[in-house]
Design brief:
Elements: E1 3-6, H1 8-16, H2 21-35, E2 40-43, H3 45-59, H4 62-71, E3 76-78, H5 83-88, H6 97-108, E4 113-115, E5 129-130, H7 132-139
Parallel strand pairs: 1-2, 1-4, 2-3, 4-5
Helix pairs in contact: 1-2, 1-3, 2-7, 3-4
């Protein structure tokens, strides 16, 4: 089974339904296939926290926000984080430290690839990085 690491922008676009139309359809298709068990979806704790933050920012109710965010954990797994890999991270090749941490989480979770609408942020990744639409065209 293909293990997909979903960048923060993917889960936020899915939740808020705010990606460009073709990308949104691809994101919805990816989540549908994760729910059906065709693929495994993985996110980092960083992404989970950001999801909680943006849901709460919109509805301003921490309990309701947490309940909405926690529902994602029924279909998406939090990747384990291996601190040893963090020490190996060469931040000089990463434009954004947060994306470097995402990459480390994808590696720790033994994911096959990273799905992001900002693939250029992962130019130093040793894992394949693909946007949702191209992923669906290739693997859907």
């Amino acid at each position: 089974m293909r293990r997909l690491f979903l960048d923060t922008n993917i889960i936020l676009s899915f939740h808020f339904n705010d990606a460009e139309k073709r990308q949104q359809k691809a994101i919805d298709f990816i989540f549908s296939n994760i729910e059906q068990g065709k693929w495994e979806g993985h996110i980092s704790l960083i992404t989970f926290y950001q999801l909680l933050y943006f849901i709460d920012k919109k509805i301003k109710n921490p309990i309701t926000s947490a309940k909405r965010a926690y529902k994602y954990l029924d279909i998406i797994q939090l990747t384990p984080f291996t601190p040893k890999l963090l020490k190996q991270l060469d931040i000089s090749h990463l434009p954004d430290y947060e994306d470097g941490l995402q990459f480390i989480c994808a590696q720790s979770g033994k994911c096959d690839l990273i799905i992001s609408t900002n693939s250029s942020d992962f130019f130093a990744s040793t894992l394949p990085v693909i946007d949702p639409l191209n992923f669906v065209l290739q693997y859907g």
